[in-house]
Every structure is written in structure tokens, then in C-alpha cells.
């Protein structure tokens, strides 16, 4: 497992949108923007599934993912293994959180599952000669 | 091949950053933000490689990619096959364009290659019940 630094966590929380990337087992990539994201601890994040389609199919057949986020010229990519929770305490909490987000936004939102990302490696994606360097 | 609509092209040109997603042949995804992007025609885009690392390794071994871009609640994902040009007229033009971008930004930039994306399919990535629907 790899731990996010304080700065990485700060930026992850700050950006409105991260990119969740999956792939089929034979290597067809898929990337979608996600907003319903939170940090569980230094090496774990949670993204709620409201509308996943190909992403969910990929996660079920190939439970690895990358989560990329940036602002300006600073960015990070988390390489993760994933599990999907559709019941239990963490899912119930996620369902309440997403329902509240929907109420705030003025349109109904419903979580179909809590995707839990265990961070295995962290890479920089800032432009420059160090782009793509493994940081953690 | 799939053709972008006028609206898709407008949004692609407008957003400062798109996300270029690749994968290893055994399905490990990789996603990086890219800014040096342009439309060649309705079914072809070009992204210049200044700093690609894992992205380039993936593109060479598995020449398929997704390019995702969005603004607010509107977004698209282009599923593409790719070729890489490191010589010839299109590469030379790209090299000049990137050099000029660097001059404008006040730090040197150099294109290592012009990645040409032929669009095969286009999906919506806007949140909502239609998320992930194939559009073109």
C-alpha cells in the first residue's frame, strides 16, 4: 500500500472532479469524471457509484483502477485495487451522503455502491521532466 | 470511425485540459491530463507528447486510448485507435506549434511526437441516467 501526503489529500479534497480510469481485461481503457469522492484514510479513498456503466463492468471483471486529479500544473495519479460494497455500514453511510448531496443540488441522487480504492502506488502527472515519476 | 458533432468539437477546443487514458495489454489503466491537443478533422485529433512516460509505453504496446473531456455536467469520451508520428510534415508542424506554446508560456517545450487519434466510438460521460451511453 502507498500513503498519500497531506498535500495530496488536500488537493484531492479541493478539486471538484477527479478522473476514474478502468480497463477491460484485454486493455481497452475507460475514463469518467467523478465528483462523489472522499478520503477514508491515507491509503484509502471511496467513490460512490450513481451512474457507472462501463466503469462498473470493468471494475467487476478487472478490479484495478487509476484515480487522477490535478489543479493547474500540479497533479497525481493513484494506482489502486478496488472492492465494491453494496451493503453494510460503509455503504449505508455513502447512501445517506449521496442522498444529501442530491438534496443540496436539487435533483435526486442515489448511490448504487461504494467503491473502495486501496492505493498501491502514486505517480506525479504534473507536466515537466518529472512527469510520470513514481512518488510513493 | 465516428464523427464528432459541432458541439463536441467546440467543447474539446474550449476545455484547457483533456484526459488521455491508456492501458497495458493486461488491463492496468493509466490516465494523465493533457493540454497540447487539437482537432485535425471530425474523426481525428492530435495530442503532442512532451512528457509521456507510462502513457507512451502503453501506446506503443497497446495502440488504443480514450480521450475524455468535460465542463460542468457535460462531457464526452472518445474511444480511439492511435498512431505515433515522430517525423514528417505533421510532426514538424506539431514541433513548431509546441515550441511556440513554450515561448508563450515562458518555459521551453519540445514535442517528442504527434499522437494521432482516430475516433472509433463516442460516449457521453455527463452524470445522469444516460451516463456512459454510446452517442456516435
From TrEMBL, chains A, B:
Record domain Pyridoxamine 5'-phosphate oxidase N-terminal: where: 4-125
InterPro entries: Pyridox_Oxase_N, Split_barrel_FMN-bd
Domain of life: Bacteria
One Pfam family in the UniProt entry: PNPOx_N
Name of this protein: Pyridoxamine 5'-phosphate oxidase N-terminal domain-containing protein
Native species: Desulfocicer vacuolatum DSM 3385
